[in-house]
Amino acid sequence: MAMKTDKSAAGGFSLSAVGRGTLIGAVASFGATVLVACLFYFTTVSEALLPYFISFILFLSGVLGGSLASKQAGGKGLIHGAGVGIALFLILWLVAATVVPGPVTAQMLAQKFLLLLSGGAVGGFIGVAFLL
């Protein structure tokens, strides 16, 4: 299935492209998190590895969403990818504020923000580099 590029937004910022990239990134992140939870539940993988798995999932969901957003927008990969990373961070922050029982530390938030922002930016570069 070929993805349409938003030609009207090629010279500017496409909010619809960022929205679509954010939705795809959030769904991918949720799906990967469920798979990792099953991995930990049904195998003998040490739970000490959980932070590494979560960091990897966050980075990859930012890459996926950022690449799809910049590809749909037809350009400006850094801006669209970073927009996806910031939007994913805001979603993560809202979910963590309502679901996580303990305190949410500034260090944890900064780490997740940098993972999502850098993943989105890298994805934005990938999406622009592989435009068809």
In words, what does this structure look like?
The protein has 132 residues and is mainly α. The chain has one domain (15-129). Helices cover 75% and strands 0% of the residues. The chain is built from 4 helices and no strands. It has helices at 15-42, 50-73, 77-99, 106-129. Helix 3 (77-99) runs antiparallel to helix 4 (106-129). It is globular, with a radius of gyration of 16 Å. The two termini are 13 Å apart. The mean pLDDT is 88.
What's the Cα radius of gyration? 16 Å
Work out the strand percent. Answer: under 5%
Coarse structural class:
mainly alpha
Helix content bin: over 70%
Q: Which stretches are poorly predicted, pLDDT < 50 over at least 5 residues?
A: none
How would you spell out the order of helices and strands? HHHH
In total, the number of strands is 0
Overall pLDDT confidence: 88
The biggest sheet amounts to: none
